[in-house]
Design brief:
By secondary structure, the chain is an alpha/beta fold. 29% of the residues lie in helices and 19% in strands. Helix 1 crosses helix 2.
Length: 229
Amino acid sequence: MSRRPLVKICGLTRREDLRKARELGADFFGSIGVPDTPRYQPLPVAARLFAEATDPRQRVRVFFEPTPAEARAALEAGFAKVQAHWDPAGSYDPQALSAAIGTAHLWLAPRLPDPLAFRPEWLPLGERFLIDGYRPDRIGGTGVPVDTEAFRALQERYPDARFALAGGLTPDNVERVLRESQAAFLDLSSGVESSPGHKDPTRLAALFAALPPARPAFRGESPGEGPRS
């Protein structure tokens, strides 16, 4: 891959980490809205933190099976995107969420043991689709690598869709993962941390040093800008 992928640094809880990630060239910044998880921050706290350190278009609030009210509250608090993880084997309806907040604000993250189990009926519901590593006991943030061959095949199956790759990404493996997956968007959290919610500046710097040359500065998420998977 000759162009640098878009990069989201997720699970941010500290101002200094946001600033370092922004300085290095991150495109999006994720805040966790799932209670009882290590990187959770209440919405008012997260909104203040992210407002001080990021462009409004770059802010992503991450949920597990959010209600429309929760998603709307995040948007009203200044987050541009809602990233919704859900279990397709359950009763949660992402279509209702999409109808409530609009596809332009919604990134969907189905829990899939195999990336190629992705369903085409989801495509009209969101702007981007996150493919995370699978663990039977976790809904997201698994730290488990995705099958890069399957991810690449998924992109080839739906060339007009936007996909993001997460799970087990580190500064040490990112070059190989990019080469094998041809991902145009990477989502990292634990792979650049010293402890949950605390990003390691050395690991952040190593990550961006391992990526292809930087693209132009962030210009938003319109279809003609930046790599498209």
